[in-house]
Design brief:
This protein is mainly α. It has one domain (about 5-145). Helix content is about 75%, strand content about 0%. The protein has helices at about 5-35, 40-70, 90-110, 115-145, 155-180. Helix 1 (about 5-35) crosses helix 4. The longest helix is centred in the N-terminal third of the chain and has 33 residues, at about 40-70. The protein starts with a helix and ends in a 13-residue tail after the last helix.
C-alpha cells in the first residue's frame, strides 16, 4: 500500500470516528432529552447526512489543495509564510489533493451503502449506551456511598454538618415560611 492509500485509510478512520461521535450525540439528545424512540432507520438517515457532510469537507480541502498547487506552480521565490506555497511544494500539494479526494470518495460510498450505515449506527448506539451506563454507575457510586465505605467520611463530616446547618436548614425554613407552614419572622425591633 502506498503513502496515499495509507493516508486515505487513516483519514477514513478519523472521519468514521467523527461520524460515530456525532451520531452518538444525536442518539443521546433524541432519546434522553427529547424522549424519542430509538429507530435505527431514522438514525441511519442522519448517518448518511453526517457522512456526506464530512465528504463535502474533504472535497473542499481537495479543491483548496488543487488551487494552492496551481498558484504555486512556477513560483521560485522564498515564501512569506506557512501557506505561501512555491513550486517545490506542488508535489506535496498534489498528494494532499489525492488524499482528501480519496477520503471524500470513500465517505460518499459509505453513505450509499445501507449495511455500512447500519454498522455506523450500531457503533454509535453502543457508544451512547456506554456513556449512559458510565454516568449511572458514577452517580450510583456517589449517591449510594455508605459511611463505612467512604474513607473521607470522618474528616469531611464536620464540613457537611456545617453546610446542612448554614445552607440547607435555612433554605428549608425559608421555603416552609413561603408555603405558609411557618409563621413569618417578626420584624426586628428598633434599638
Amino acid at each position: 500500500m502506498g503513502r496515499t492509500a495509507e493516508a486515505v485509510a487513516e483519514g477514513v478512520q478519523i472521519a468514521w470516528a467523527a461520524a460515530r461521535l456525532a451520531l452518538k450525540n444525536i442518539i443521546l439528545v433524541e432519546t434522553i432529552a427529547q424522549e424519542k424512540e430509538f429507530i435505527p432507520g431514522a438514525v441511519a438517515a442522519a448517518a448518511r447526512e453526517v457522512l456526506l457532510g464530512l465528504a463535502r469537507e474533504q472535497q473542499a480541502a481537495a479543491d483548496l489543495a488543487e488551487r494552492q498547487r496551481k498558484r504555486a506552480w512556477g513560483r521560485f521565490s522564498e515564501p512569506d509564510g506557512t501557506h505561501d506555497y512555491r513550486d517545490r511544494d506542488t508535489r506535496n500539494l498534489r498528494r494532499r489533493q489525492k488524499q482528501y479526494a480519496g477520503v471524500a470518495k470513500a465517505l460518499r460510498e459509505y453513505a450509499d451503502d445501507d449495511a455500512t450505515l447500519l454498522t455506523l449506527v450500531e457503533e454509535a448506539r453502543e457508544a451512547a449506551w456506554a456513556d449512559v451506563e458510565g454516568n449511572l454507575s458514577r452517580r450510583l457510586a456517589v449517591e449510594g456511598m455508605r459511611a463505612d465505605a467512604d474513607p473521607e467520611y470522618a474528616s469531611m463530616r464536620d464540613a457537611r454538618m456545617s453546610a446542612v446547618a448554614l445552607i440547607d436548614l435555612q433554605r428549608l425554613e425559608a421555603r416552609q415560611r413561603k408555603l405558609g407552614h411557618l409563621p413569618e419572622e417578626p420584624a426586628p425591633a428598633d434599638a
